[in-house]
Amino acid sequence: MSAPAGQEGVSLRPTTWMRARRVLVVVVHLLLIPVAYAAAWGLRFDFSIPQHFWALYSATLVYLLPLRMASFLLFGLHRGWWRHAGLTDLVSLVKAVSLSSALFLSALYLLEELAGFPRSILFLDWGMAVLVFGGGRFAVRSFREGRVFGWRAEQGTPTVIIGAGEAAERLIRQCRRGEERDLRPVALVDDDITKVGMHLHGVPIVATTADLNRVVRRAGAKLIVIAIPSAARSDMQRMVQLCMETEVDFKIVPSWRELMEGRAKQGQLRNVKIEDLLGRQPVELDLGPVRRDLQGKVVLITGGAGSIGSELARQVASFGPKRLILLDQAESPLYFIGLELAQAHRATPLVSLVADINDVARLERIFAENRPDYVFHAAAYKHVPLMEENAVEAVRTNVLGTLQVAECAAQYGVDKFVMISTDKAVNPSSVMGATKRIAERVVLGWPSLLRSRTDFRVVRFGNVLGSDGSVIPLFERQLAAGGPLTVTHPEVTRYFMTIPEAVQLVMQAGALRETAGHIAMLEMGEPVRITDLAENLIRLSGLEPYRDVQIVFSGLRPGEKLHEELMSEFEATMPTAVEKIRVIRTDETDGGRLQVGLDRLLASLAVGDARDLRLSICALVPECVVPLRIEAPQEPAEASPRRAAR
Question: Per the domain annotation, does 119 fall within a domain?
Answer without folding.
Answer: yes
